[in-house]
Every structure is written in C-alpha cells, then in structure tokens.
Automatic annotation (TrEMBL):
This is M15 family peptidase. It comes from Pontibacillus yanchengensis. InterPro entries: DD-CPase-like, Peptidase_M15C, Zn_M74/Hedgehog-like. It comes from the Bacteria. Pfam families: Peptidase_M15_4. The lineage of its organism: Bacteria, Bacillati, Bacillota, Bacilli, Bacillales. GO terms for molecular function: peptidase activity. Residues 87-155 form the Peptidase M15C domain.
Length: 184
C-alpha cells in the first residue's frame, strides 16, 4: 500500500490509498442517510402508490458495511436464503442510493408477494409499484438479467460501485440536473 499526498486547497491535506491498482479516497466517509434525491423519490413513491390503492413499506434504506456483510452471510455461512450478492461496500445501499420495499396489507401484515392484487385492478401491485418507481428515476432490481432482486430500487446517478468505493459521490444536484437534461 502506498500513500500519496493530494493537493486540496479547500481542506486539510488528504491521502489517496493505492490498493490493487484502485485509488481510494481515505477521507470520504460513507453516508449515514439516504441521498436527498433518493429520499424525495422514496416519499413520492409511497404517495403515488397510495393514490393507486397500494400501501407500501420501505423495509431497508441506508446500510452499514457490517449490516451488508450480515445479509451477505445469509444463505452462505448463516441460515436462510441468499438475499444479496453484494458484500459490504458493494451495494448501493451502503452509499444511501438504494431502498427496498414490500407491500402492506390492510391488516398490517407486510408481504413480498409479487403477484398480489390488493387494489383489485387486475394488475399485480408489486409491478405497479415498480413501474411508478422507474418513472421516478429508480432502477428496479426486478429488471436485472441474472439475480432478480424484486424489492430493490436504486439511483446510481451514473456512478458505478467501483467509483463509489473510490470515494466518488453524487452531488445533491446531480439528479435534478439529469432530469432537466432529459426534459430539455
């Protein structure tokens, strides 16, 4: 491991760690809450789903690396089914850019039934929520070609996990700028 000083005129000195040919900005902490645009879209998703007669609950948002590693162990070294292929630091949840959802029935029960039609319109509520989420700018894990992660919604703001691990972060204005470009 080699430490190289970086020149940064806006703050105290920082260092870049070069590890396995990947630069990591050591002084960039992981977020402790959802990105503001993800938070806004999450609230709008709940509202729009409710307007369609669908009650959803957000079952997960920001996750620490430790929490992610515990989920990764599930179905491997711990009991249960495999629910993720991402270790700590490899999930958009670790960067405040992802949420998971489930359906909430009138009796308060939370379900993960992708075929349930609680609003009686002939369409699976789960798929209606996924469509709304995609319209709000989320990427849906149910669209992934290999490991289908139906509860998962994320906004990557054009950043890969590798870039996030290196310390890059979306600005709070990124999503609004992307939306303006799409409309203009």
């Amino acid at each position: 491991m080699v430490l190289l000083p970086e020149i940064d005129t806006n703050s105290s000195s920082s260092f870049t760690i070069i590890n396995d040919e990947e630069e990591v900005k050591e002084d960039v902490p992981l977020p402790t809450k959802l990105h503001p645009e993800v938070e806004k879209a999450k609230e709008k998703l709940k509202q729009l789903a409710e307007e369609q007669g669908i009650d959803i609950v957000i079952t997960d948002g920001i996750r620490t690396k430790k929490e992610q590693n515990k989920l990764y162990a599930q179905g491997r070294t711990d009991k249960g089914d495999i629910v993720t292929h991402a270790r700590g630091g490899e999930s958009y949840h670790n960067y405040g850019l992802a949420i998971d959802y489930a359906l909430k029935l009138d009796n308060g029960e939370v379900i993960w039934d992708i075929e349930h039609d609680g609003n009686g319109n002939g369409k699976a509520d789960w798929m209606e929520v996924a469509r709304i989420a995609k319209d709000l700018g989320f990427e849906w894990g149910g669209d992934w070609p290999s490991f289908k992660d139906y509860p998962h919604l994320q906004m990557d703001f054009g950043l890969s996990i590798r870039e996030l691990r290196r310390g890059e972060r979306p600005s709070e204005q990124t999503y609004a700028d992307e939306q303006a470009e799409d409309m203009g």
